[in-house]
Amino acid sequence: MSNSPVVTMSYGDVVGVFEEDLSVFRGIPYAAPPVGDLRWQSARPHEGWAGIRSAENYGPSALQPFVPGGSPILGEHGSPPFDEDCLSLNIWTPSADDKRRSVLVWIHGGGLLIGSGSIPYYAGDTFAKNGDLVVVTINYRLGALGFLSGMGDRENLWLDDQAVALRWIVDNIAAFGGDPNAITLIGQSGGALSIGGLVQHPTSRGLFHRAILQSSPLGIEFQTPSEAFERTRKLATLLGHDDVEALRNEPGERLVEGSLGVLIDNAAFGNWPLAFLPVIDEDSFPVHPLQALAESDVELLVGWTEDEASFAFALDPQYADTSRSQVLDWLGSEGEEALTIYEAYLSSGRHTPQEVLSGVVSDNLFRRSALDLVEKRAVDAPVYAYEFRLDSPAFDGRLGATHCLDLPFTFNNVDRWSGAGFIQGIEEVVFERIGTSMHKAFISFAVTGDPKHEGFAWPKYTSEQGELLLIDQNIRVGTEVGRPWQSLDGSRPA
């Protein structure tokens, strides 16, 4: 133990491990275990411990569906052990000293149903070593245990978890060499959406100062508590109950099984299905995150991939033979404009009905709302934006620049992504060139609020210029982001 890093906090002492010039602390609990009487209750601060607690190993990930090997596109996105007692975090620091380094907090995505801050993909060592940052990754409740409406003392328990984790970081990160007044949140997909919740949550707003949002599905229509409670009823029915109260006695594993049934129940044609959704709720999530982010004073860097929705549709057998008439029927809510929308997307480079469908969903959920956000913020605050366009050669090129494909470049750790099918065929020199620049840019933003670094320019986005970073085989500044919906006299697909 004398050869291991030890940190003293008000909660108790922790002993971690030295790994490649970093001090690493894993599995530190930031809240009381949400089990027993605390199941479906908002997160409580941890009471602490006596003596020295080992922080050598990751804590369990949140309960979630698991298939060995994961998806053909991304591979495993969360691995055993899983447990309801999952509220822990992990820290990578160059040294547990008094240097007060900038802090980067990673919030994972995963459709609000899967994922973990303990995935090797998301290890914080590259950012800590290359940027002299203190990096934190967190676990939070997922699926029925984090999102189920009407079962606890409030809605959005997943967000309460994250808010308590952020409060813990602010209170304790100085002991790990970090500056509690220089915290940047970075999240992808559901993790980026979470930032739009944290910026307005009553106990977390004001605790962070910068944010990087990657592929945030800000186009989602959130639910009211009464609408969300219908999914609670559906889960109870699928598990054979007439009364939702019977869910309280269900083992966690059964709740996971039922959640998959709720997911399937919401898998209508053209939907990117989600089992559960965040709830617009006065106590924790009062407004849509797009509005909250636009009105906040948090410095923002916002990005998306060109073909986000191919992740959901390109390899799904039920969409293999998608027809023009199916897509037109799906677009029928636009009435006579359905054909105009369809043709606009064909003209923008989509070649098949399935690609048109994927393009519309990509814009509806991700790109359009991201552009709305950066344009609103650019009026009176610096904001930076990027579009990731590097196509994956895997699966005969059907994915394009799909959802999550920018992540190996973000972390600059492609060696850990060997189980992810979507990186296959991308040349190593491309990873080196693009990954190095993106990674350094994110480090620079976390430290200074500006992503530029030596030999690399990234201008602020302005409504007049519309300049953002375009990332494919190379990186360049450009303005030519196709917006098929704007060919419809300003109207946009629903």
Tell me about this structure.
By secondary structure, the protein is an alpha/beta fold. 29% of the residues lie in helices and 15% in strands. It has 13 helices and 14 strands. The strands form two sheets. It has an eleven-stranded mixed sheet with strand order 3-4-6-8-7-9-10-11-12-13-14, with helices on both faces. It has a three-stranded mixed sheet with strand order 1-2-5, with no helix packed on it. Strand 9 (178-188), helix 4 and strand 10 form a beta-alpha-beta unit. Helix 5 crosses helix 6.
By oligomeric state, this entry counts as: single chain
Neighbour order of strands in the largest sheet: 3-4-6-8-7-9-10-11-12-13-14
Task: Count the DSSP helices.
Answer: 13
Low-confidence stretches: 489-494
**Class by alpha and beta content:** alpha/beta
Give the % helix: 25-40%
How large, in whole angstroms, is the Cα Rg? Answer: 22 Å
Order of helices and strands: EEEEEEEHEHHEHEHHHEHHHHEHHEE
Shape: globular
Tell how many strands the DSSP assignment holds. 14
What portion of residues belong to β-strands?
15-25%
Largest sheet: 11 strands, mixed
What value does the average pLDDT take?
A: 94
List keywords for this structure.
494 residues, alpha/beta, eleven-stranded mixed beta sheet, 14 strands, globular, disordered C terminus
